[in-house]
Amino acid sequence: MTCIRTILFFLLLVPVGLSAAVIRTGPDSLLQHALDRAQPGDTILVAPGHYKQHEIVVRTPVTLIGESYPVFDGENKYQILIVSADNVRIQGITVQNTGRSSMVDMAGIRLQNVSRVTVSNCRVLNTTYGIYLQGSKFCVIENNEIRSSATDELQAGNGVHAWKSDSLLIRNNKISGHRDGIYFEFVTGSAIIGNISTNNVRYGLHFMFSHNDGYSRNTFRHNGAGVAVMYSKHVVMVGNTFGEHWGDASYGILLKDISDSRIEHNQFAHNTIGIFMEGSNRIHVLRNTFNANGWAMRVQASCEGNTIETNNFTENSFDVATNGTLMLNTWRNNYWDKYEGYDLNRDGTGDVPYHPVSVYSILSERIPSTMILYRSFLTNIIDQAEKIMPSIIPDQLRDDSPQTKKWKL
Amino acid sequence: MKMYLPALTLLIFLASACGRKYEPINYGKDACAHCKMTIMDKRFAAEIVNEKGRVFKFDDITCLKAYTAELTTGSLLFVNDYAGHSAEPLDATKAVYLHHESFKSPMAGNLPAFADAAAAKALQDSLGLNLLTWESLP
Question: Which ranges carry the Carbohydrate-binding/sugar hydrolysis domain (chain A) (predicted)?
């Protein structure tokens, strides 16, 4: 009996002995003191209020929870929260007004060489860099609102900035008004899911030298350009929406020196150029919708081994443009609304090939000012003549099996 | 009357020669001629004006360097002053450079340009770097 009692006693005691303390703190005391006193595993509850505290360093694995979004203010001079311990969780706080500096990348929340850190449900307002990850692994950034107003500011930083990191999950964040919404440089094996990235000055999402990453179900709207994927390999892009990117250097996706990637089930609507490809190889573009873009795709002659199939091309001014006559890519089974061929055996596939590059897209590539004649009577005649006897348009760039019915995507 | 044609030719020649100058970059709007990115960072921006007066703008000195391979001689090469002391761009061939990954330039070229060795001194000492010239750029 005593034995059982002892066991029971220990069973009850042990969890109590290990259980973490809950520390409460308010605007009158320094959060840094609470953090320094905390034991690993403790929870710190931050009371509502306005905290003029900055450069707070988290050195122990704790959970930091804000009640009704307490505000940490950097007074336009300082960085705010720096995490340098593993297994830290940060929830429900507001950080705002970091400083701006050309030498130091000022961040609202900075994760410095850590792993398994979660930042969720936070508000990051008016910061140079919103959430900055460097040398970090297995971190989760989710459900945050990251907002700044860098409409024309050159010193602006990125919303979520990741550098030399691995295995990150960036999910369901709302990001606007930064230089790049999300920026990846030397980041591998990471996923970007369900974010809404709008009104950023340069790109909604930007990859540099980042391999084996994927982004899906994100919305990119009204950015300088939607997504730029550069010098990367094995990038999977599925189910995203790209819209309203208008301007000289504006694209839905800009691909520069990319290989072995997949672009699937995306929507491109109202962009100057849907997809721009340069020096990109072995990319599979399938089941996408291109609607009402200036150019649906621009495939430069430096691209090879790409397959473009089962896409819908509707209401684009130009379907495809290219800058050379050589074409080493495969186009098949796409639906083109400008296709005027016939389908005698009614198998849903047109009987004559479709040439998606129009004469005018070639002419305007060489002489931009010819655009003034676009949609005039003269151009229609040239277009018809060219369809019968192709001479200017690259003959190899053609879809031998154009669909006569729109794909249901 | 006979003098008109040579004079006119000379005038046009001179005018075109004078006309070759740095064209200000519209940051956040202009695209890099090499990598197609929007030029945002004033500190690393660069420009080429070729012998016909055509302007190419770049967001990183690495892009400018890569592009010079495609050019004939006689082009003017400009780089922005990293320190921002001179509002005017520098002559790329006369400027001095540093190279370190902590500069984080848009295309990871990480080559800030300075007007002279004195301007680069503080950064050079703090990071312990070698001073580079146009010829010795990586």
Answer: 46-185, 192-352
